[in-house]
């Protein structure tokens, strides 16, 4: 038996299910990038709101690239399970807020029409850093990106998120309909401002008049999102199917902790987010910086160095006291660069992060976190490093994390085994590594000169020395002993 509307009443009593009539739910949100994180985070918040009676805020989830999620969820009427894992037990919850799924490339016209429909008041995104076709160091649209070039030439059959958003907004402008709010839920610095800048520039390239209208009428609130969501494995599917007594082709696995902080700017209207536990604020920037530098920065550092040391998951890495101490030190050094609202306890937040990272039930693979490092490093690690330099503080701890990334993207681990490096500029990184060879004095400068990652920071002699020295220690000592040192 397969999870679906027809089988909901046959779920075991311990499995939580939608507390509302799904047949009465109508769409109010189109979400681009309907992956695991969205389904464990925003879709759960919306599920709670639907149970409270906000039935005109259902989600239409669209995949921009492939049909895997659609193919799994369509036969299940959009239903899926969230398995919430702690060290003590696993709680299972079936979520029903996604009422329809689309595959953008299969029918771009249908997705544009759905976004252009006045019933759609929010278009949200979790497409990962690389999905924005921008330069991470500057936050500007990469106008030479192949998808951007294609979308400007083929506005009715776009590939990029910016292309779809602008195509739909163009139709709403032409019809006199109010624009939707664009709600970014990705780990980008000042994510609403960044996406706004990208979309406005794309629109201006298409039509200056349209660009001006979007700049004046469309809201791009920033957000901070936080929940650890590992990649779903076949073992997870098997466990969930046993718990449900029926098959679920694409459940998601996550932790008990969840947080969503949103700037309250929604001219087209929004559901009562606060009723579901969302924190509405005037400025999300300090919360975003806190999360990027403390959680995401230490997560990436642990992923690269832990992988090199032979550990498969974050929890396994944290079980090594040397890495746990290193993560604590990274957070302490990042914390001094932050300015947070009164009453925010950075020490308590860091302690919670260390506890979450150590959750033995959560198998968050280092290789998953290590993906797309060229897009992640600028906001997760390099911003902290730059600010510590401005404050006249040492940077060796963060330099080791950067060196761990460098060692990782060479594509060969400490035992000579191949690393599957997944990154938008993996060929460029591999070419630089081949030219330099496994010699820190050559490899570190070669990678620091990759301007899409490091910008002008890579030319700073203090950075070059600290990163080169850290990379030399990694080569000489190995990751575990380098971290301990």
UniProtKB/TrEMBL annotation:
Q: Which key words tag this protein in UniProt?
A: NAD, Oxidoreductase
Q: Please list the GO terms describing molecular function.
A: oxidoreductase activity, acting on the CH-OH group of donors, NAD or NADP as acceptor
GO:BP terms for this protein?
mannitol metabolic process
Residue ranges of every copy of the Mannitol dehydrogenase N-terminal domain listed in the record: 28-273
Q: Which InterPro entries match?
A: 6-PGluconate_DH-like_C_sf, 6PGD_dom2, Mannitol_DH, Mannitol_DH/Oxidoreductase, Mannitol_DH_C, Mannitol_DH_CS, Mannitol_DH_N, NAD(P)-bd_dom_sf
Residues in Mannitol dehydrogenase C-terminal domain copies: 283-474
Q: Which SUPFAM superfamilies match?
A: 6-phosphogluconate dehydrogenase C-terminal domain-like, NAD(P)-binding Rossmann-fold domains
A Pfam family that the UniProt record links to this protein: Mannitol_dh_C
The protein's superkingdom reads Bacteria
* PANTHER family assigned to the protein according to its UniProt record, in alphabetical order: MANNITOL DEHYDROGENASE 2-RELATED, MANNITOL DEHYDROGENASE DSF1-RELATED
* Protein's name in the database: Mannitol dehydrogenase family protein
Q: What species was this sequence derived from?
A: Bradyrhizobium sediminis
């Amino acid at each position: 038996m397969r999870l679906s509307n027809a089988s909901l009443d046959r779920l075991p009593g311990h499995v939580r299910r939608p507390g509302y009539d799904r047949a009465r739910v109508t769409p109010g949100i189109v979400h681009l990038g309907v992956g695991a994180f969205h389904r464990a985070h925003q879709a759960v918040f919306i599920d709670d709101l639907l149970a409270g009676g906000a039935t005109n805020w259902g989600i239409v989830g669209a995949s921009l690239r492939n049909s895997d999620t659609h193919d799994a969820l369509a036969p299940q009427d959009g239903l899926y399970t969230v398995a919430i894992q702690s060290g003590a037990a696993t709680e299972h919850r079936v979520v029903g807020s996604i009422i329809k799924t689309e595959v953008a490339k299969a029918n771009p016209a249908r997705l544009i029409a759905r976004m252009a429909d006045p019933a759609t008041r929010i278009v949200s995104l979790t497409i990962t850093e690389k999905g924005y076709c921008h330069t991470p160091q500057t936050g500007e649209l990469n106008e030479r990106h192949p998808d951007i070039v294609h979308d400007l030439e083929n506005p009715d059959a776009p590939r990029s998120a910016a292309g779809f958003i602008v195509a739909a907004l163009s139709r709403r402008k032409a019809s006199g309909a109010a624009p939707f709010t664009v709600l970014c839920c990705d780990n980008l610095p000042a994510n609403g401002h960044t996406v706004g800048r990208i979309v406005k520039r794309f629109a201006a390239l298409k039509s200056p008049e349209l660009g001006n209208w979007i700049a004046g009428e469309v809201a791009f609130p920033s957000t901070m999102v936080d929940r650890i969501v590992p990649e779903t494995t076949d073992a997870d599917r098997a466990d969930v199917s046993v718990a449900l007594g029926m098959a679920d082709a694409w459940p998601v696995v996550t932790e008990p902790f969840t947080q969503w902080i949103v700037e309250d700017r929604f001219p087209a209207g929004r559901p009562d987010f606060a009723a579901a536990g969302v924190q509405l604020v005037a400025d999300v920037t300090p919360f975003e910086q806190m999360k990027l530098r403390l959680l995401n920065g230490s997560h990436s550092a642990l992923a690269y160095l832990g992988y090199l040391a032979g550990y498969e998951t974050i929890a396994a890495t944290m079980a090594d006291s040397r890495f746990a101490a290193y993560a604590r030190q990274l957070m302490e050094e990042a914390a001094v660069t932050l300015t947070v609202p009164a009453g925010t306890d950075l020490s308590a937040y860091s302690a919670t992060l260390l506890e979450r990272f150590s959750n033995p039930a959560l198998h968050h693979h280092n290789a998953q976190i290590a993906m797309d490092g060229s897009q992640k490093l600028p906001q997760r690690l390099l911003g902290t490093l730059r600010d510590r330099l401005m404050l006249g503080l040492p940077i060796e701890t963060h330099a080791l994390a950067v060196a761990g990334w460098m060692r990782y993207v060479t594509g060969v681990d400490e035992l000579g085994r191949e690393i599957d490096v997944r990154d938008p500029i993996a060929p460029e990184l591999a070419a630089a590594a081949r030219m330099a060879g496994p010699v820190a004095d050559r490899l570190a400068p070669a990678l620091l000169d990759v301007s899409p990652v490091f910008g002008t920071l890579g030319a700073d002699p203090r950075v070059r020395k600290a990163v080169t020295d850290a990379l030399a220690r990694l080569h000489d000592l190995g990751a575990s002993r380098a971290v301990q040192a």
